[in-house]
Amino acid sequence: MLQHKIKIETTGHYFLLGEPSPAVRQFWIVCHGYAQTADEFLKKFELLDDGKKLVVAPEGLNHFYKKGFDGDVAATWMTRRHREDKIGDYSNFLQTILEKYLPELSADVRVVLLGFSQGTATVCRWMMEKRPNFHDLICWSGMPPEDLDYKSAADYLKTKNLYLLYGSTDPFLTPDRLTAVQEIERKNSVDFDEKPFVGGHEIPIEVLRDFLKNIQN
Question: How far apart are CA 32 and CA 148, in angstroms?
Fold first, then answer.
């Protein structure tokens, strides 16, 4: 039995908060976690809807029923099956979104990439695959992938602000996993500014509001 594959055109969906215009000062692309949908995820960022920010929430290209064969539907970015193809597909999707809106914004707009949970790996892999132009990378409740060669992108990353936000009781970011992040930093000469908060695997509104002080034009 031989496996084959063929490239096809597909359709990606995303949700928008704000209106694109030269008045926009910050352009955010926010990627949800496993078993979420983009529209529900985007609600967590409604405080950014101030007329000066444009927020795009892309949705994972793969969908499934949360329970059984019917009911609520959720999305995921990838699984281990056909992994490299899925990374290529969603990297093209996210890059296309970025390139669609940048021409409608001012030349000095600040580009912020945020990934939550599984979305963290998604954004990091897109970053390393396509090298998009951005200013801030926010890994929220998720680790930067250990298998990426950040050192090879040293010149690209040295001008970027890299953040890692996580809750003090997050069951997925254990002390062992945080130690692994430190090893990634040491091995690759890269630095993620860690910003722990009191909470779990979540994006509390008050934590996001406070963090915005770091994202200034």
Answer: 20
**pLDDT score recorded for residue 73:** 95
* Half-sphere CA count of 99, side-chain side, radius 13 A: 9
Distances (CA, A) of 210 to 140, 166, 182: 14, 14, 24
DSSP 81-107: TTHHHHHHHHHHHHHHHHHHHGGGS-T
Distance CA 144, CA 160 (A): 15
Element (H, E) at 181: helix 175-188
- How many whole angstroms separate alpha carbon 94 and alpha carbon 58? 7
Kindly indicate the confidence band of residue 42, based on its pLDDT and cuts at 50, 70 and 90: very high
pLDDT attached to residue 97? 98
- Identify the DSSP state of 36: B
Query: CA-to-CA distance for 111 and 132, rounded, in angstroms?
Result: 10
For the residues of 112-173, what is the DSSP string, one character each?
EEEEETHHHHHHHHHHHHH----SEEEEESSPPPTTS-GGGGHHHHTTSEEEEEEETT-TTS
Q: What does residue 131 show for φ and ψ, rounded to 5 degrees?
A: 50, 55
* Residue 87 scores a pLDDT above 80: yes
Across the beta sheet with 14-17, what order do the strands follow?
14-17, 53-58, 26-31, 110-116, 136-140, 161-167, 193-197
Question: What is the model's pLDDT at position 217?
Answer: 72
Amino acid at 46: E
Q: Does residue 151 contact residue 131 with C-beta atoms inside 8 Å?
A: no
- Considering Cα of 24, then 28, then 29, then 33, what sign does the dihedral take? negative
